[in-house]
Design a protein that fits this description.
about 220 residues, alpha+beta, globular
């Protein structure tokens, strides 16, 4: 994929994130791994007015070429994830409402619904709080993520990962839905958590679920 096409795809995914109700204004940020490092959305530019040439190219050491806009203030998180997870090619960070409610309560999301398997874990963890835009927050994320594809940031929001932008965005959408389901279940006394055995069966079923020619769909579990 050319860098121009990748920039356009990133802008389109950013707009889809907002259209899905996962953020407001210029909150949230997305990135895509490249051969040289990554492409990431710039800071302070709302998706509705973001143009492809404004997407920032950076190395995974945090170096950006001259003449570009400033990258998202959370670029430390993105580079830390790519360094720790060579299997991941796209990162979505957003402040979706229900995921952020749980993040502010420091509540991980348990397996109250089988679709948590899309995150690759039986419980979506909460990374300890650190100030936004800092290496400390990136370290908190890297230290919490493990092999999963999602986590909550304490008092902040959520992070979703994928082998592609489509998958990372799908994980972010599902995490918000799972957060809403769990939040609602807490209001009526709490949901019943699925057992490890039940979740193992779900992951096995996911291996044969959907259109198998679509790598992103096949990789749900």
């Amino acid at each position: 994929m050319s860098k121009d096409r990748a920039r356009s795809d990133l802008v389109a995914a950013y707009r889809r994130m907002t259209a899905a109700g996962l953020g407001t204004g210029s909150s949230g940020n997305l990135s895509l791994r490249t051969v040289e490092g990554m492409l990431i959305t710039p800071t302070g530019v709302a998706p509705a007015i973001l143009e492809a040439p404004q997407v920032v190219a950076m190395s995974l050491a945090g170096q950006a070429g001259e003449g570009q806009l400033l990258p998202s203030s959370e670029w430390h998180i993105h580079t830390a994830i790519y360094r720790a997870r060579p299997d991941i090619n796209a990162v979505v960070h957003c402040h979706s409402r229900h995921a952020t409610i749980l993040a502010c309560a420091h509540r991980p999301i348990p397996a109250v619904h089988y679709m948590i398997a899309i995150a690759g874990v039986d419980e979506i963890p909460v990374a300890p709080y650190a100030t936004f835009g800092t290496e400390a927050l990136a370290g908190s994320v890297a230290g919490t993520l493990g092999r999963g594809r999602a986590l909550l940031l304490a008092n902040h929001g959520q992070i979703a990962l994928g082998v592609s932008l489509d998958q990372a965005l799908a994980v972010a959408v599902e995490v918000e839905e799972l957060a809403a389901i769990y939040w609602g279940s807490l209001a009526i006394g709490g949901g019943k958590v699925l057992s490890k055995e039940a979740m193992m069966e779900v992951r096995t079923a996911f291996a044969d679920y959907g259109q198998q020619h679509d790598k992103d769909t096949k990789d749900n579990g």
